[in-house]
Amino acid sequence: MRENLAKTLALFNKKDKKKLFIILLLMIGAALFETIGVGLMLPFVGIITNPEIVETQPIIRWIYETAGFTSHEQFVIAAVGALLTVFVIKNVYLLSFFYVQFRILLNQQVKLSSQLLKTYLRKPYTFHLQRNSSDLLRNVTAEVPKVFQGMILAVFQLLTEVLVIICIVTLLMFTAPTATMTAAGILGGSIGIFFLIFKKKISNLGTEQQRVTGTMIKWINQSLGASKDVKVSGRENFFIQAFQYYSQIKANNGRYMKMLDSAPRLFIETILVFTILITMLVIMNQGADTSELITIMALFAMAAFRLMPSITRVMALLTQIRYNKPALDIVYHDYLMENEVDTEQLKQTDLPRRFKYSIDAVNVSYYYPKQSEAALKNISLSIPIGSATAFIGESGSGKSTLMDTLLGLLNPSEGKIKADGKDILAMKQSWQRNIGYIPQFIFLSDDTILRNVAFGIHEADIDEKSVWRALEQAQLKSFVESLPDGIYTQIGERGARLSGGQRQRIGIARALYHDPQILFMDEATSALDSRTEKEIMNSINQLKGDKTIIIIAHRLSTIERCDKVYEMTNGVLHETAILDKTTG
């Protein structure tokens, strides 16, 4: 429990912890109001059932005389009005308390979800190579809400109910101590036995649901992400069956949890009826007269009426907290990774700088995590600014790894990548702001041409002149001008309303939008037909001189106008002039 508390508090900064303290204070007030509501029932029932109470109870007599009542009926009517007023005030306070509690915690949930996403986006590229995006998606969208609504909010609700129970039991102890201790012993022992039986099963269900949810998201992503392949190959049933399999596991676990959620109410209801009957016997054995017995039993009945939902909620909340503990563990672990983000890089300026001389790899080697063999082996080369350089080689030869180090996505295990003699890692943000990157598969959002070219920029901040310049450089301007809505044309999910060549040109325009000095092409035309590839490469080659172009390619037609061609073989770099055959 202490470990869970420490993990929970770690998710809040100093300012937000003060807000938690406010919730605690309001929670104590809520418990006191609940106790007052129950406690007032004892004198209220006494006033109705025993008119002589005015004479025997000093406080009631003082109220009667001070208020100037002249009859018992007047006093009863006033007592009813006072009780109703107290309950109205109590419930208004509780409603306000719930509002403040939900607002503080759900705002913190939004804050933590955003913080977790920011942490993931700022992690090194190697982190994303090792983690499944479905798990990251699950953590941001599902696990964080579980932590706040299934754990933190549940803990506050649990504390509120426990305080209410303690206050009401304390009140009952003053009225009938023996009967109260008997009832508390029966109820407490029953609840303890219940959780001893089920606590391990609940924890296992929470861990299993976390795993199954991530797997379901993965199957959805795979089936919808490759919808064309799935339909053409007739593999719909394969993905449907895989999803249904894990969905059924989740449903089975959910059914079991719903049963565990419902069981406490039925369990407590049975135990509580038994406890009330035992309590009556204990009180009767103590020789209470009929009037006193009615008053005490009315108090116990009112207490039971209020305690039963509290005890039921306590058991349900304990189940919920244990069930959602795996979510706290994973969110806590990944939230702490914020401390591992490259803070030096975040302090760097994000303004692009212009380079005049060359980009150099100096004795660069790279080992992927947990790999003993180097993916790059002591590579040295120099790329003059304004030139066009190509890398060819078989799949797995190290071409993409070398490009990733040049992009600043992978930090060399040995050696350095330099621009104009300065290590790019010392100026990573300004280096990457001066890069345009065109991958083999362009990610296009279901949005307009404008927002796909100026990707990741608020529409109010988009420079339309730069968009049109980039479209012209990508030789897509005339096509866009022919569209009824121009740059505001919706292109559909993944650019479904565009041809393959048009999608690739959108990717080129995106890379050119911020007018980078260096352009990287990672097999950017390998999926296109020869004619479309030639047209796109003509567009790219027109930028040569003004921009430094670095290409990874398989087809020699892609690199025929490059100044230098390097061949990669098992992580080793060779300069070559062989342009009479394809590379696979």
UniProtKB/TrEMBL annotation:
UniProt keyword annotation of Transport present: yes
Membrane-traversing stretches: 20-48, 75-100, 152-174, 180-198, 266-284, 290-308
MF (Gene Ontology): ABC-type transporter activity; ATP binding; ATP hydrolysis activity; ATPase-coupled lipid transmembrane transporter activity; cysteine-type peptidase activity
ABC transmembrane type-1 domain residues: 21-319
Main location: membrane
UniProt GO cellular component terms: plasma membrane
Boundaries of every ABC transporter domain copy: 359-584
Record's keyword terms, sorted: ATP-binding, Cell membrane, Hydrolase, Membrane, Nucleotide-binding, Protease, Thiol protease, Transmembrane, Transmembrane helix, Transport
Source taxon at top rank: Bacteria
Membrane topology: Multi-pass membrane protein
Compartment list: Cell membrane
Pfam family, one: ABC_tran
InterPro entries assigned: AAA+_ATPase, ABC1_TM_dom, ABC1_TM_sf, ABC_transporter-like_ATP-bd, ABC_transporter-like_CS, P-loop_NTPase, Type_1_exporter
PANTHER family cross-referenced by the UniProt entry: ATP-BINDING CASSETTE SUB-FAMILY B, ATP-BINDING CASSETTE SUB-FAMILY B MEMBER 6
Protein name in UniProt: ABC transporter ATP-binding protein
Organism of derivation: Alkalicoccus luteus
